[in-house]
Write a structure and sequence with these properties.
The strands form 2 sheets. This protein has a 5-stranded mixed beta sheet, sandwiched between helices. It contains 12 helices and 10 strands. It has 3 domains: 93 residues, Conserved hypothetical protein from pyrococcus furiosus pfu- 392566-001, ParB domain, CATH 3.90.1530; 85 residues; 78 residues, Roll (SH3 type barrels), CATH 2.30.30.
Length: 311
């Protein structure tokens, strides 16, 4: 009688140690993506570098102390924005949130919540600060100058920032200004780029007068600068007035200029002084001597009275 056949199962392969799986080259990417779609990452504060091209450089000390106290008690509630470091692995570059990062370091926080934005540009950094009103005029001026030094035109910079070209031009007045205007800005007496632009143009024509005025002026606004412009430049004979005006009448009006009040108006975001000595050619119009030295006849109903200054 034949013996029944017995199947033999080779189990020797189970004794072999399986090779370790190869590292997943995109594991970090998957982790970051998952976190970006849900909760923010908790990034070690020590692994985040501030952007060396960060336009914002001015940080109010009192405001920073208040932020530090808040973060010490409650932590960071609004995540910062970061992007991978271009040359160093496991490090990050800060997009937005310099105050939160600095305050977290100051109070000894180990991590900070952060979202990853790999498409960040320096223009986005400036725009974010402009929208939050965190960017000082000088900081924006330095950014504009840097972009112009890189070969970009003012019109292109304005378009990418989403602002009027005049805003770009006005801020350039804060680059290497005369000492008197520098003092006005750094002391906080006036931070308006438009006002300082008009004042700088006036300084080009009347440097000594403007320097004396800056040293004694109690209030520096668009209205007071416009009044100074009207005083220094004097009432101008309108280029659109009737050519038959009598010389005697003109002289009488010029002599009376010092006794009449100055009417300061705003027209299309430009400040100027109404010429009260000449009649406009068109009805319901005003002749305006603008702070930039130009004289124009404009519709009266489009002008907004800003201030009346009595001599």
């Amino acid at each position: 009688m034949k013996k029944p056949m017995t199947a033999t199962l080779d189990l020797t392969a189970l004794d072999r140690t399986a090779p370790a799986p190869a590292p997943d080259p995109i594991a970090k990417e998957r982790t970051v993506t998952a976190e970006v779609l849900g909760r923010p990452l908790q990034i070690p504060v020590k692994d985040i570098d501030e952007d060396p091209g960060q336009p914002r450089q001015e940080f109010d000390a009192e405001s920073m102390e208040e932020l530090e106290s808040s973060i010490r008690l409650h932590g960071v509630k609004t995540p910062v924005s970061i992007r991978p470091h271009p040359t160093e692995q496991k490090r990050w570059i800060l997009n937005f949130g310099a105050r939160r990062l600095r305050a977290s370091r100051s109070v000894g926080k180990a991590t900070i919540p952060a979202f990853v934005d790999r498409s960040h540009t320096d223009y986005q950094q400036v725009i974010e600060n402009l929208q939050r009103e965190d960017l000082k005029p000088r900081e924006l001026a330095m950014f504009i100058k840097r972009k112009m030094d890189e070969g970009e035109k003012q019109a292109q910079i304005a378009e990418l920032l989403g602002v009027n070209r005049s805003m770009v031009t006005n801020h350039l007045a804060l680059i290497d200004p005369p000492a008197c205007i520098e003092e006005i800005y750094t002391s906080g007496k006036c931070l308006s780029a438009k006002t300082l632009y008009d004042l700088r143009n006036l300084h080009k024509e009347f440097p000594k007068d403007v320097e004396r005025w800056c040293a004694t002026a109690q209030e520096i606004t668009r209205a007071t600068v416009s009044a100074l412009s009207a005083k220094l430049r004097g009432p101008r004979k309108s280029t659109i007035a009737s050519p038959n005006s009598e010389q005697g009448s003109e002289e009488r009006m010029l002599r009376s200029a010092t006794t009449m009040p100055s009417l300061i108006v705003i027209f299309q975001d430009r400040s100027g002084t109404v010429d009260l000595h000449h009649a406009p050619q068109q009805p319901n119009h005003l002749i305006i001597n603008f702070a930039d030295g130009k004289q124009e006849e404009v519709p009266a109903r489009q002008c907004q009275i800003e201030q009346i200054i009595f001599q």
